[in-house]
Please model this.
Amino acid sequence: MKFHPDPVSAQSIQSYGANWVQVGTTRFEHSVVVSSNGERFDWNCCRFEDLTPAHFEQLAALQTELIIFGSGARLRFPAASLLQSLIGQQIGVETMDTQAACRTYNVLASEGRHVAVALLLEN
Model:
């Protein structure tokens, strides 16, 4: 019996470090959002303390089943008031440190799930 890996059509995070991630061949040193349906955009936030409801409204517009929030080098939970747009659309949110968020996104995206990861990369 031969084993063949299933082809993955979703973009994946190739590697990461303390304050950077690489998606495909592009290296990011600023906050970024990556979606399993191919969307990728800069997430204009440099510090956890600067997060606003507008940041999470951008994520709600993706209409995914789950948002994985990478909160930086350590685990920090956003206030519920910031997540109202996601809660209102019944979009799940999982918070973890950024490196764990990268790994979790890759697993879920490779399973064909409609997910996005918002990675806070603090300068």
The CA atoms of residues 64 and 96 lie 18 Å apart.
